[in-house]
Amino acid sequence: xxxxxxxxxxxxxxxxxxxxxxxxxxxxxxxxxxxxxxxxxxxxxxxxxxxxxxxxxxxxxxxxxxxxxxxxxxxxxxxxxxxxxxxxxxxxxxxxxxxxxxxxxxxxxxxxxxxxxxxxxxxxxxxxxxxxxxxxxxxxxxxxxxxxxxxxxxxxxxxxxxxxxxxxxxxxxxxxxxxxxxxxxxxxxxxxxxxxxxxxxxxxxxxxxxxxxxxxxxxxxxxxxxxxxxxxxxxxxxxxxxxxxxx
Amino acid sequence: xxxxxxxxxxxxxxxxxxxxxxxxxxxxxxxxxxxxxxxxxxxxxxxxxxxxxxxxxxxxxxxxxxxxxxxxxxxxxxxxxxxxxxxxxxxxxxxxxxxxxxxxxxxxxxxxxxxxxxxxxxxxxxxxxxxxxxxxxxxxxxxxxxxxxxxxxxxxxxxxxxxxxxxxxxxxxxxxxxxxxxxxxxxxxxxxxxxxxxxxxxxxxxxxxxxxxxxxxxxxxxxxxxxxxxxxxxxxxxxxxxxxxxxxxxxxxxxxxxxxxxxxxxxxxxxxxxxxxxxxxxxxxxxxxxxxxxxxxxxxxxxxxxxxxxxxxxxxxxxxxxxxxxxxxxxxxxxxxxxxxxxxxxxxxxxxxxxxxx
Lengths: 247, 358
Description:
The complex is a heterodimer of chains A (247) and B (358).
Chain A (H helix, E strand, L loop, with lengths): L1 E5 L3 H13 L4 E6 L2 H11 L3 E5 L7 H8 L7 E6 L6 H6 L3 E4 L4 H10 L5 H11 L7 E6 L2 E6 L3 E7 L2 E6 L2 E5 L3 H7 L4 E5 L2 E4 L3 E6 L4 E5 L6 E3 L4 H14 L1
Parallel strand pairs in A: 1-2, 1-3, 3-4, 4-5
Antiparallel strand pairs in A: 6-7, 8-9, 8-12, 9-10, 11-12, 13-14, 14-15
Chain B lengths: L1 H11 L8 H22 L3 H33 L4 H28 L17 H47 L2 H17 L1 H19 L4 E3 H19 L3 E6 L8 E3 L4 H12 L6 E10 L2 E9 L10 H18 L4 E6 L3 E9 L6
Parallel strand pairs in B: 2-4
Antiparallel strand pairs in B: 1-3, 4-5, 5-7, 6-7
Helix pairs in contact in B: 1-5, 2-3, 3-4, 4-5, 6-7, 6-8, 7-8, 8-9, 9-10
Protein backbone atom coordinates (compact mmCIF):
# COMPACT_ATOMS: atom_id res chain seq x y z
CA UNK A 1 0.00 0.00 0.00
CA UNK A 2 1.27 3.43 -0.94
CA UNK A 3 1.43 6.08 1.74
CA UNK A 4 2.34 9.75 1.68
CA UNK A 5 3.58 11.46 4.82
CA UNK A 6 2.64 15.10 5.34
CA UNK A 7 4.23 17.18 8.12
CA UNK A 8 5.96 20.54 8.16
CA UNK A 9 8.70 19.27 10.45
CA UNK A 10 11.41 17.28 8.75
CA UNK A 11 12.34 15.17 11.83
CA UNK A 12 8.69 14.24 12.30
CA UNK A 13 8.43 13.06 8.67
CA UNK A 14 11.70 11.21 8.96
CA UNK A 15 10.53 9.30 12.01
CA UNK A 16 7.18 8.30 10.47
CA UNK A 17 8.92 7.14 7.28
CA UNK A 18 11.34 5.04 9.29
CA UNK A 19 8.53 3.43 11.26
CA UNK A 20 6.59 2.69 8.08
CA UNK A 21 9.64 1.10 6.46
CA UNK A 22 9.92 -1.20 9.44
CA UNK A 23 6.37 -2.44 8.88
CA UNK A 24 5.64 -4.90 6.13
CA UNK A 25 3.35 -4.26 3.24
CA UNK A 26 3.59 -0.47 3.18
CA UNK A 27 5.62 1.87 1.07
CA UNK A 28 6.29 5.59 1.54
CA UNK A 29 5.57 7.03 -1.88
CA UNK A 30 6.42 10.61 -0.97
CA UNK A 31 6.64 13.38 1.60
CA UNK A 32 5.07 16.83 1.70
CA UNK A 33 5.64 19.78 4.04
CA UNK A 34 2.18 21.35 3.86
CA UNK A 35 -1.35 20.83 2.61
CA UNK A 36 -0.85 22.37 -0.80
CA UNK A 37 2.18 20.19 -1.52
CA UNK A 38 0.24 17.22 -0.22
CA UNK A 39 -2.61 17.69 -2.69
CA UNK A 40 -0.17 17.99 -5.60
CA UNK A 41 1.66 14.89 -4.44
CA UNK A 42 -1.58 13.01 -3.97
CA UNK A 43 -2.72 13.88 -7.48
CA UNK A 44 0.56 12.63 -8.92
CA UNK A 45 0.94 9.44 -6.87
CA UNK A 46 -2.61 8.48 -5.86
CA UNK A 47 -1.59 6.77 -2.62
CA UNK A 48 -4.11 4.72 -0.64
CA UNK A 49 -3.23 6.30 2.71
CA UNK A 50 -2.30 9.86 3.69
CA UNK A 51 -0.69 10.58 7.07
CA UNK A 52 -1.56 14.20 7.78
CA UNK A 53 -0.21 16.53 10.43
CA UNK A 54 -2.91 18.91 11.62
CA UNK A 55 -0.96 22.09 12.29
CA UNK A 56 0.91 23.15 9.15
CA UNK A 57 1.63 26.41 7.33
CA UNK A 58 -0.12 27.38 4.05
CA UNK A 59 -2.92 24.85 4.43
CA UNK A 60 -3.58 22.87 7.58
CA UNK A 61 -4.35 19.17 7.81
CA UNK A 62 -8.06 19.55 8.34
CA UNK A 63 -8.58 21.60 5.20
CA UNK A 64 -6.32 19.26 3.25
CA UNK A 65 -8.43 16.30 4.34
CA UNK A 66 -11.54 18.13 3.26
CA UNK A 67 -10.13 18.63 -0.23
CA UNK A 68 -8.89 15.06 -0.44
CA UNK A 69 -12.34 13.79 0.42
CA UNK A 70 -13.76 15.36 -2.74
CA UNK A 71 -11.73 13.00 -4.90
CA UNK A 72 -13.65 10.24 -6.66
CA UNK A 73 -11.91 7.57 -4.63
CA UNK A 74 -10.62 9.45 -1.62
CA UNK A 75 -7.66 8.03 0.31
CA UNK A 76 -7.76 6.90 3.92
CA UNK A 77 -6.69 9.81 6.07
CA UNK A 78 -4.86 9.38 9.37
CA UNK A 79 -4.23 12.58 11.28
CA UNK A 80 -1.10 13.01 13.38
CA UNK A 81 -0.87 15.66 16.03
CA UNK A 82 1.40 16.58 18.92
CA UNK A 83 -1.31 17.91 21.11
CA UNK A 84 -4.80 19.16 20.51
CA UNK A 85 -6.84 19.25 23.71
CA UNK A 86 -10.29 17.83 23.41
CA UNK A 87 -10.31 17.94 19.62
CA UNK A 88 -9.35 14.29 19.42
CA UNK A 89 -12.79 13.19 20.52
CA UNK A 90 -14.13 14.27 17.15
CA UNK A 91 -11.89 11.76 15.39
CA UNK A 92 -13.12 8.98 17.58
CA UNK A 93 -16.76 9.67 16.95
CA UNK A 94 -16.31 9.96 13.21
CA UNK A 95 -14.10 6.94 12.65
CA UNK A 96 -11.18 8.77 11.12
CA UNK A 97 -7.76 7.66 12.29
CA UNK A 98 -5.54 9.81 14.42
CA UNK A 99 -2.18 9.32 16.06
CA UNK A 100 -0.48 11.26 18.83
CA UNK A 101 3.12 12.28 18.28
CA UNK A 102 5.55 10.81 19.23
CA UNK A 103 3.79 7.94 17.49
CA UNK A 104 4.09 4.48 18.97
CA UNK A 105 4.97 1.87 16.35
CA UNK A 106 2.18 -0.52 17.36
CA UNK A 107 -0.37 2.27 17.15
CA UNK A 108 0.84 3.22 13.70
CA UNK A 109 0.61 -0.41 12.57
CA UNK A 110 -2.93 -0.71 13.97
CA UNK A 111 -4.06 2.55 12.36
CA UNK A 112 -2.62 1.59 8.98
CA UNK A 113 -4.23 -1.84 9.16
CA UNK A 114 -7.56 -0.30 10.02
CA UNK A 115 -7.27 2.47 7.44
CA UNK A 116 -10.35 2.70 5.30
CA UNK A 117 -11.18 5.11 2.61
CA UNK A 118 -12.69 8.11 4.28
CA UNK A 119 -15.98 9.43 3.11
CA UNK A 120 -16.65 13.06 2.56
CA UNK A 121 -19.29 13.06 5.28
CA UNK A 122 -16.86 11.74 7.88
CA UNK A 123 -14.19 14.28 7.14
CA UNK A 124 -16.71 17.06 6.85
CA UNK A 125 -18.08 16.15 10.27
CA UNK A 126 -14.62 16.17 11.82
CA UNK A 127 -13.88 19.48 10.21
CA UNK A 128 -17.12 20.98 11.42
CA UNK A 129 -16.29 19.97 14.94
CA UNK A 130 -12.64 20.94 15.09
CA UNK A 131 -12.02 23.50 12.42
CA UNK A 132 -15.19 25.28 13.49
CA UNK A 133 -16.41 27.38 10.62
CA UNK A 134 -13.05 28.58 9.43
CA UNK A 135 -13.02 29.64 5.80
CA UNK A 136 -10.93 27.53 3.44
CA UNK A 137 -7.68 28.96 2.11
CA UNK A 138 -8.02 27.18 -1.23
CA UNK A 139 -10.82 25.80 -3.36
CA UNK A 140 -10.48 22.41 -4.90
CA UNK A 141 -11.49 21.80 -8.50
CA UNK A 142 -11.53 18.52 -10.38
CA UNK A 143 -9.82 18.51 -13.72
CA UNK A 144 -9.86 15.22 -15.62
CA UNK A 145 -10.16 13.32 -12.38
CA UNK A 146 -7.35 15.24 -10.70
CA UNK A 147 -7.59 17.57 -7.76
CA UNK A 148 -6.36 21.06 -8.38
CA UNK A 149 -6.15 23.81 -5.80
CA UNK A 150 -6.96 27.43 -6.43
CA UNK A 151 -5.84 29.85 -3.70
CA UNK A 152 -8.80 31.93 -2.57
CA UNK A 153 -6.82 35.15 -3.03
CA UNK A 154 -6.46 34.38 -6.76
CA UNK A 155 -10.20 34.16 -7.35
CA UNK A 156 -11.82 37.13 -9.16
CA UNK A 157 -15.46 36.14 -9.04
CA UNK A 158 -17.97 33.29 -8.88
CA UNK A 159 -20.90 33.09 -11.26
CA UNK A 160 -23.75 30.63 -11.06
CA UNK A 161 -24.59 29.06 -14.40
CA UNK A 162 -27.21 26.35 -14.64
CA UNK A 163 -26.32 23.69 -12.10
CA UNK A 164 -22.76 24.78 -11.51
CA UNK A 165 -20.85 27.71 -10.20
CA UNK A 166 -18.12 28.95 -12.49
CA UNK A 167 -15.06 30.20 -10.71
CA UNK A 168 -13.06 32.85 -12.55
CA UNK A 169 -9.49 33.11 -11.33
CA UNK A 170 -6.05 34.26 -12.34
CA UNK A 171 -5.38 31.20 -14.48
CA UNK A 172 -8.73 30.77 -16.15
CA UNK A 173 -12.04 29.38 -15.09
CA UNK A 174 -13.27 26.16 -13.47
CA UNK A 175 -16.47 24.55 -12.36
CA UNK A 176 -17.17 23.90 -8.71
CA UNK A 177 -20.08 22.26 -6.98
CA UNK A 178 -20.48 24.55 -3.97
CA UNK A 179 -23.54 26.75 -3.98
CA UNK A 180 -23.23 30.53 -4.13
CA UNK A 181 -25.10 30.86 -0.85
CA UNK A 182 -22.61 28.64 0.91
CA UNK A 183 -19.64 30.40 -0.67
CA UNK A 184 -21.03 33.78 0.28
CA UNK A 185 -21.38 32.63 3.87
CA UNK A 186 -17.92 31.10 4.07
CA UNK A 187 -16.04 33.98 2.43
CA UNK A 188 -18.16 36.91 3.51
CA UNK A 189 -15.12 38.97 4.50
CA UNK A 190 -13.52 38.60 1.08
CA UNK A 191 -16.39 38.43 -1.41
CA UNK A 192 -19.46 40.52 -2.06
CA UNK A 193 -22.76 39.60 -3.67
CA UNK A 194 -23.59 41.86 -6.63
CA UNK A 195 -26.29 39.85 -8.34
CA UNK A 196 -28.44 36.82 -7.69
CA UNK A 197 -25.90 34.85 -9.69
CA UNK A 198 -22.58 36.51 -8.88
CA UNK A 199 -20.12 36.92 -6.02
CA UNK A 200 -17.14 39.23 -6.57
CA UNK A 201 -13.83 39.53 -4.73
CA UNK A 202 -13.90 42.86 -2.96
CA UNK A 203 -10.23 43.43 -3.77
CA UNK A 204 -10.99 43.10 -7.50
CA UNK A 205 -13.66 45.77 -7.70
CA UNK A 206 -12.42 48.86 -9.49
CA UNK A 207 -15.54 50.85 -10.30
CA UNK A 208 -19.16 51.07 -11.35
CA UNK A 209 -20.35 51.83 -14.88
CA UNK A 210 -23.78 52.88 -16.08
CA UNK A 211 -24.85 51.07 -19.19
CA UNK A 212 -28.14 51.15 -21.06
CA UNK A 213 -29.85 48.35 -19.19
CA UNK A 214 -28.43 48.98 -15.72
CA UNK A 215 -25.23 49.12 -13.74
CA UNK A 216 -22.12 47.08 -14.41
CA UNK A 217 -19.10 46.44 -12.29
CA UNK A 218 -15.57 46.91 -13.57
CA UNK A 219 -12.88 44.57 -12.30
CA UNK A 220 -9.16 45.12 -12.03
CA UNK A 221 -8.00 42.00 -13.83
CA UNK A 222 -10.95 41.13 -16.09
CA UNK A 223 -12.18 42.73 -19.28
CA UNK A 224 -15.63 41.37 -18.63
CA UNK A 225 -18.20 43.68 -17.03
CA UNK A 226 -20.47 42.09 -14.44
CA UNK A 227 -24.01 43.32 -14.16
CA UNK A 228 -25.14 44.53 -10.75
CA UNK A 229 -28.74 43.85 -9.87
CA UNK A 230 -30.91 46.67 -8.64
CA UNK A 231 -31.30 44.92 -5.32
CA UNK A 232 -27.56 44.81 -4.66
CA UNK A 233 -26.75 48.22 -6.09
CA UNK A 234 -26.91 50.07 -2.74
CA UNK A 235 -24.46 47.61 -1.14
CA UNK A 236 -22.03 47.98 -4.03
CA UNK A 237 -22.31 51.79 -3.98
CA UNK A 238 -21.74 51.81 -0.24
CA UNK A 239 -18.71 49.58 -0.63
CA UNK A 240 -17.18 51.77 -3.35
CA UNK A 241 -17.76 54.90 -1.33
CA UNK A 242 -16.19 53.35 1.72
CA UNK A 243 -13.27 52.14 -0.35
CA UNK A 244 -12.59 55.56 -1.83
CA UNK A 245 -12.66 57.03 1.66
CA UNK A 246 -10.11 54.49 2.81
CA UNK A 247 -7.65 55.19 0.03
CA UNK B 1 -12.20 32.69 29.15
CA UNK B 2 -12.04 30.65 32.31
CA UNK B 3 -10.89 33.68 34.26
CA UNK B 4 -13.64 35.82 32.84
CA UNK B 5 -16.35 33.32 33.64
CA UNK B 6 -15.36 32.82 37.23
CA UNK B 7 -14.84 36.52 37.72
CA UNK B 8 -18.39 37.22 36.62
CA UNK B 9 -19.62 34.51 38.90
CA UNK B 10 -17.69 36.01 41.78
CA UNK B 11 -19.03 39.50 41.20
CA UNK B 12 -22.58 38.21 41.22
CA UNK B 13 -21.70 36.76 44.63
CA UNK B 14 -20.99 40.22 45.92
CA UNK B 15 -24.35 39.91 47.63
CA UNK B 16 -24.25 37.06 50.18
CA UNK B 17 -27.07 34.55 50.05
CA UNK B 18 -29.58 35.82 52.58
CA UNK B 19 -31.71 32.71 52.07
CA UNK B 20 -28.90 30.82 53.75
CA UNK B 21 -29.39 29.96 57.45
CA UNK B 22 -25.82 30.76 58.43
CA UNK B 23 -25.95 34.20 56.89
CA UNK B 24 -29.28 34.94 58.58
CA UNK B 25 -27.86 33.75 61.90
CA UNK B 26 -24.87 36.02 61.45
CA UNK B 27 -26.94 39.14 60.81
CA UNK B 28 -29.30 38.27 63.68
CA UNK B 29 -26.28 37.96 65.94
CA UNK B 30 -25.07 41.39 64.86
CA UNK B 31 -28.58 42.78 65.47
CA UNK B 32 -28.69 41.25 68.96
CA UNK B 33 -25.30 42.71 69.81
CA UNK B 34 -26.67 46.10 68.81
CA UNK B 35 -29.68 45.54 71.05
CA UNK B 36 -27.39 44.69 73.99
CA UNK B 37 -25.25 47.78 73.41
CA UNK B 38 -28.35 49.96 73.36
CA UNK B 39 -29.65 48.33 76.56
CA UNK B 40 -26.36 48.85 78.34
CA UNK B 41 -26.41 52.46 77.32
CA UNK B 42 -30.00 52.81 78.57
CA UNK B 43 -29.01 51.82 82.14
CA UNK B 44 -31.68 51.31 84.83
CA UNK B 45 -32.08 48.39 87.21
CA UNK B 46 -31.64 44.77 86.11
CA UNK B 47 -35.34 43.90 85.81
CA UNK B 48 -36.08 46.94 83.73
CA UNK B 49 -33.04 46.31 81.63
CA UNK B 50 -34.21 42.82 80.65
CA UNK B 51 -37.65 44.06 79.77
CA UNK B 52 -36.01 46.83 77.76
CA UNK B 53 -33.68 44.37 76.03
CA UNK B 54 -36.66 42.24 75.07
CA UNK B 55 -38.51 45.12 73.49
CA UNK B 56 -35.48 46.52 71.73
CA UNK B 57 -34.48 43.06 70.47
CA UNK B 58 -37.97 42.48 69.14
CA UNK B 59 -37.87 45.80 67.33
CA UNK B 60 -34.38 45.36 65.86
CA UNK B 61 -34.76 41.68 64.97
CA UNK B 62 -38.03 42.40 63.17
CA UNK B 63 -36.26 44.96 61.03
CA UNK B 64 -33.32 42.59 60.47
CA UNK B 65 -35.53 39.70 59.38
CA UNK B 66 -37.55 41.86 57.01
CA UNK B 67 -34.24 43.13 55.59
CA UNK B 68 -33.01 39.56 55.15
CA UNK B 69 -36.28 38.57 53.49
CA UNK B 70 -35.99 41.45 51.01
CA UNK B 71 -32.40 40.48 50.20
CA UNK B 72 -33.32 36.80 49.93
CA UNK B 73 -36.27 37.23 47.59
CA UNK B 74 -34.78 40.12 45.67
CA UNK B 75 -31.37 38.63 45.02
CA UNK B 76 -32.31 37.57 41.51
CA UNK B 77 -32.90 41.20 40.56
CA UNK B 78 -30.08 42.65 42.61
CA UNK B 79 -27.52 40.31 41.08
CA UNK B 80 -28.36 41.52 37.62
CA UNK B 81 -27.30 45.02 38.55
CA UNK B 82 -23.86 46.62 38.55
CA UNK B 83 -22.19 46.40 41.97
CA UNK B 84 -22.35 50.11 42.83
CA UNK B 85 -26.02 50.80 41.99
CA UNK B 86 -26.87 47.51 43.67
CA UNK B 87 -25.13 48.59 46.88
CA UNK B 88 -26.83 51.97 46.90
CA UNK B 89 -30.27 50.52 46.20
CA UNK B 90 -29.94 47.91 48.94
CA UNK B 91 -28.67 50.49 51.40
CA UNK B 92 -31.62 52.81 50.72
CA UNK B 93 -34.13 49.95 50.88
CA UNK B 94 -32.85 48.89 54.29
CA UNK B 95 -33.07 52.46 55.59
CA UNK B 96 -36.63 52.59 54.33
CA UNK B 97 -37.49 49.45 56.30
CA UNK B 98 -36.05 50.94 59.52
CA UNK B 99 -37.91 54.22 59.07
CA UNK B 100 -41.18 52.43 58.27
CA UNK B 101 -40.84 50.32 61.40
CA UNK B 102 -40.07 53.36 63.51
CA UNK B 103 -43.13 55.09 62.15
CA UNK B 104 -45.24 51.97 62.74
CA UNK B 105 -43.91 51.58 66.30
CA UNK B 106 -44.55 55.23 67.08
CA UNK B 107 -48.09 55.08 65.71
CA UNK B 108 -48.91 51.86 67.55
CA UNK B 109 -47.50 53.20 70.81
CA UNK B 110 -49.62 56.29 70.59
CA UNK B 111 -52.63 54.13 69.78
CA UNK B 112 -52.02 52.37 73.11
CA UNK B 113 -50.28 49.24 71.78
CA UNK B 114 -46.72 49.43 73.16
CA UNK B 115 -45.66 45.91 72.02
CA UNK B 116 -44.09 46.80 68.75
CA UNK B 117 -42.61 50.04 69.82
CA UNK B 118 -38.86 50.23 69.99
CA UNK B 119 -39.72 51.99 73.20
CA UNK B 120 -36.88 53.74 74.86
CA UNK B 121 -34.61 53.69 71.87
CA UNK B 122 -36.45 56.73 70.76
CA UNK B 123 -40.08 56.39 70.54
CA UNK B 124 -41.41 57.43 73.89
CA UNK B 125 -39.31 60.48 74.14
CA UNK B 126 -39.85 63.28 71.74
CA UNK B 127 -41.73 63.60 68.49
CA UNK B 128 -41.99 61.24 65.52
CA UNK B 129 -39.38 63.39 63.79
CA UNK B 130 -36.75 62.81 66.46
CA UNK B 131 -37.59 59.10 66.52
CA UNK B 132 -37.13 58.79 62.79
CA UNK B 133 -33.91 60.77 62.92
CA UNK B 134 -32.34 58.77 65.74
CA UNK B 135 -33.33 55.34 64.47
CA UNK B 136 -32.37 56.37 60.96
CA UNK B 137 -28.89 57.36 62.09
CA UNK B 138 -28.32 54.16 64.07
CA UNK B 139 -29.53 52.08 61.15
CA UNK B 140 -27.46 54.03 58.63
CA UNK B 141 -24.26 53.50 60.61
CA UNK B 142 -24.83 49.84 61.41
CA UNK B 143 -25.98 48.93 57.88
CA UNK B 144 -22.96 50.65 56.38
CA UNK B 145 -20.62 48.76 58.72
CA UNK B 146 -22.25 45.40 57.98
CA UNK B 147 -22.27 45.99 54.23
CA UNK B 148 -18.62 46.98 54.38
CA UNK B 149 -17.90 43.73 56.21
CA UNK B 150 -19.60 41.65 53.52
CA UNK B 151 -17.83 43.62 50.82
CA UNK B 152 -14.38 43.01 52.32
CA UNK B 153 -15.22 39.35 52.81
CA UNK B 154 -16.17 39.12 49.16
CA UNK B 155 -12.98 40.89 48.06
CA UNK B 156 -10.97 38.44 50.07
CA UNK B 157 -12.57 35.43 48.40
CA UNK B 158 -12.12 37.04 45.01
CA UNK B 159 -8.45 37.71 45.61
CA UNK B 160 -7.81 34.16 46.71
CA UNK B 161 -9.53 32.83 43.62
CA UNK B 162 -7.57 35.12 41.29
CA UNK B 163 -4.32 34.07 42.92
CA UNK B 164 -5.12 30.41 42.40
CA UNK B 165 -6.06 30.97 38.79
CA UNK B 166 -2.89 32.95 38.19
CA UNK B 167 -0.87 30.07 39.56
CA UNK B 168 -2.50 27.57 37.23
CA UNK B 169 -2.09 29.94 34.31
CA UNK B 170 1.55 30.48 35.11
CA UNK B 171 2.12 26.74 34.94
CA UNK B 172 0.32 26.47 31.63
CA UNK B 173 2.18 29.41 30.20
CA UNK B 174 5.49 27.90 31.25
CA UNK B 175 4.97 24.46 29.81
CA UNK B 176 3.27 24.64 26.47
CA UNK B 177 2.11 21.12 25.64
CA UNK B 178 2.59 21.68 21.92
CA UNK B 179 6.28 22.41 22.47
CA UNK B 180 6.78 19.54 24.88
CA UNK B 181 5.29 16.84 22.67
CA UNK B 182 6.86 18.10 19.47
CA UNK B 183 10.25 18.17 21.19
CA UNK B 184 9.79 14.63 22.43
CA UNK B 185 8.85 13.60 18.91
CA UNK B 186 12.02 15.21 17.56
CA UNK B 187 14.11 13.44 20.17
CA UNK B 188 12.40 10.11 19.41
CA UNK B 189 13.63 10.48 15.85
CA UNK B 190 17.13 11.61 16.80
CA UNK B 191 17.67 8.64 19.08
CA UNK B 192 17.95 6.44 16.00
CA UNK B 193 19.61 8.73 13.53
CA UNK B 194 21.95 10.81 15.69
CA UNK B 195 22.26 9.53 19.27
CA UNK B 196 24.70 12.30 20.27
CA UNK B 197 22.34 15.00 19.17
CA UNK B 198 19.51 13.23 20.96
CA UNK B 199 21.51 13.18 24.17
CA UNK B 200 22.21 16.90 23.92
CA UNK B 201 18.58 17.59 23.18
CA UNK B 202 17.48 15.73 26.27
CA UNK B 203 19.96 17.69 28.39
CA UNK B 204 18.72 20.95 26.88
CA UNK B 205 15.14 19.97 27.59
CA UNK B 206 16.03 19.02 31.15
CA UNK B 207 17.74 22.36 31.78
CA UNK B 208 14.85 24.18 30.23
CA UNK B 209 12.38 22.49 32.52
CA UNK B 210 14.62 22.94 35.51
CA UNK B 211 14.62 26.69 35.02
CA UNK B 212 10.91 26.62 34.29
CA UNK B 213 10.19 24.91 37.57
CA UNK B 214 12.74 26.89 39.58
CA UNK B 215 11.33 29.17 42.20
CA UNK B 216 13.39 32.24 41.49
CA UNK B 217 11.74 35.52 40.75
CA UNK B 218 14.58 37.71 39.52
CA UNK B 219 17.47 36.54 37.35
CA UNK B 220 20.06 38.27 35.23
CA UNK B 221 19.46 38.87 31.55
CA UNK B 222 22.48 36.66 30.83
CA UNK B 223 20.76 33.74 32.58
CA UNK B 224 17.48 34.38 30.80
CA UNK B 225 19.34 34.45 27.49
CA UNK B 226 20.94 31.10 28.32
CA UNK B 227 17.50 29.58 28.89
CA UNK B 228 16.30 31.13 25.65
CA UNK B 229 19.27 29.71 23.75
CA UNK B 230 18.52 26.21 25.05
CA UNK B 231 14.94 26.63 24.01
CA UNK B 232 15.87 27.88 20.55
CA UNK B 233 18.26 24.96 20.23
CA UNK B 234 15.34 22.58 20.66
CA UNK B 235 13.21 24.45 18.17
CA UNK B 236 16.06 24.55 15.67
CA UNK B 237 16.23 20.76 15.66
CA UNK B 238 12.55 20.64 14.83
CA UNK B 239 12.21 23.53 12.40
CA UNK B 240 15.64 23.33 10.79
CA UNK B 241 16.49 26.22 8.51
CA UNK B 242 13.05 27.71 8.79
CA UNK B 243 14.17 29.28 12.06
CA UNK B 244 16.66 32.12 11.92
CA UNK B 245 17.50 34.24 14.92
CA UNK B 246 19.23 37.60 15.13
CA UNK B 247 20.57 38.55 18.54
CA UNK B 248 20.88 42.21 19.22
CA UNK B 249 22.02 42.45 22.82
CA UNK B 250 24.74 44.80 24.09
CA UNK B 251 27.09 42.98 26.47
CA UNK B 252 26.83 45.69 29.13
CA UNK B 253 23.14 44.96 29.62
CA UNK B 254 23.65 41.29 30.37
CA UNK B 255 23.84 41.82 34.12
CA UNK B 256 20.48 43.60 34.24
CA UNK B 257 17.94 41.84 36.43
CA UNK B 258 14.51 40.84 35.20
CA UNK B 259 11.74 38.49 36.32
CA UNK B 260 12.63 34.88 35.44
CA UNK B 261 11.10 33.65 32.20
CA UNK B 262 10.00 37.06 31.04
CA UNK B 263 11.70 36.69 27.67
CA UNK B 264 11.57 32.98 26.80
CA UNK B 265 7.74 32.81 26.55
CA UNK B 266 7.85 35.76 24.14
CA UNK B 267 10.31 33.85 21.96
CA UNK B 268 8.07 30.80 22.13
CA UNK B 269 5.10 32.91 21.03
CA UNK B 270 7.11 34.37 18.18
CA UNK B 271 7.86 30.87 16.90
CA UNK B 272 4.40 29.43 17.43
CA UNK B 273 2.49 32.34 15.91
CA UNK B 274 5.11 33.91 13.66
CA UNK B 275 7.70 31.50 12.28
CA UNK B 276 5.80 28.22 12.18
CA UNK B 277 2.88 29.42 10.02
CA UNK B 278 5.33 30.67 7.39
CA UNK B 279 6.09 27.90 4.87
CA UNK B 280 9.73 28.90 4.50
CA UNK B 281 10.12 30.25 8.03
CA UNK B 282 11.64 33.59 8.86
CA UNK B 283 14.05 35.62 10.90
CA UNK B 284 13.18 36.73 14.40
CA UNK B 285 15.07 39.40 16.30
CA UNK B 286 15.76 39.32 20.01
CA UNK B 287 16.90 42.69 21.26
CA UNK B 288 17.80 44.66 24.36
CA UNK B 289 18.60 48.36 24.58
CA UNK B 290 18.86 51.14 27.09
CA UNK B 291 16.19 53.76 26.67
CA UNK B 292 16.42 56.68 29.07
CA UNK B 293 15.71 55.40 32.56
CA UNK B 294 14.66 51.96 31.45
CA UNK B 295 15.84 48.89 29.64
CA UNK B 296 13.86 47.57 26.73
CA UNK B 297 13.96 43.88 26.00
CA UNK B 298 11.87 42.32 23.29
CA UNK B 299 11.21 40.01 20.40
CA UNK B 300 10.17 40.83 16.87
CA UNK B 301 8.90 38.27 14.40
CA UNK B 302 7.49 38.28 10.86
CA UNK B 303 3.81 37.43 10.37
CA UNK B 304 2.09 36.03 7.34
CA UNK B 305 -1.00 37.95 6.36
CA UNK B 306 -3.18 34.87 6.24
CA UNK B 307 -2.45 33.89 9.80
CA UNK B 308 -2.96 37.21 11.47
CA UNK B 309 -6.26 36.17 12.99
CA UNK B 310 -4.68 33.25 14.77
CA UNK B 311 -2.42 35.56 16.62
CA UNK B 312 -4.79 36.23 19.43
CA UNK B 313 -6.12 33.77 21.98
CA UNK B 314 -3.16 31.52 22.85
CA UNK B 315 -0.82 34.44 22.61
CA UNK B 316 -2.80 36.49 25.11
CA UNK B 317 -2.32 33.94 27.86
CA UNK B 318 1.46 34.23 27.87
CA UNK B 319 1.37 38.00 27.42
CA UNK B 320 -1.06 38.61 30.25
CA UNK B 321 0.95 36.28 32.46
CA UNK B 322 4.14 38.24 31.86
CA UNK B 323 2.28 41.50 32.34
CA UNK B 324 1.03 40.28 35.72
CA UNK B 325 4.49 39.27 36.85
CA UNK B 326 6.01 42.59 35.73
CA UNK B 327 3.30 44.32 37.67
CA UNK B 328 4.12 42.30 40.77
CA UNK B 329 7.82 43.05 40.48
CA UNK B 330 7.78 46.72 39.48
CA UNK B 331 4.25 48.06 39.84
CA UNK B 332 3.42 50.69 37.27
CA UNK B 333 7.07 51.35 36.45
CA UNK B 334 7.35 48.42 34.03
CA UNK B 335 5.48 48.17 30.77
CA UNK B 336 4.74 45.52 28.17
CA UNK B 337 3.85 46.87 24.77
CA UNK B 338 2.73 45.08 21.64
CA UNK B 339 3.29 46.58 18.22
CA UNK B 340 1.49 45.06 15.28
CA UNK B 341 2.98 46.20 12.00
CA UNK B 342 1.96 45.18 8.49
CA UNK B 343 4.36 42.26 8.41
CA UNK B 344 5.97 42.32 11.84
CA UNK B 345 4.84 41.67 15.36
CA UNK B 346 6.95 43.08 18.18
CA UNK B 347 6.58 42.68 21.92
CA UNK B 348 8.72 44.93 24.10
CA UNK B 349 9.25 44.82 27.84
CA UNK B 350 10.28 48.10 29.35
CA UNK B 351 11.83 47.72 32.79
CA UNK B 352 13.03 50.52 35.08
CA UNK B 353 16.80 50.71 35.61
CA UNK B 354 16.30 51.80 39.20
CA UNK B 355 16.26 48.80 41.43
CA UNK B 356 18.04 46.84 38.76
CA UNK B 357 21.73 46.28 39.10
CA UNK B 358 23.56 47.14 35.93
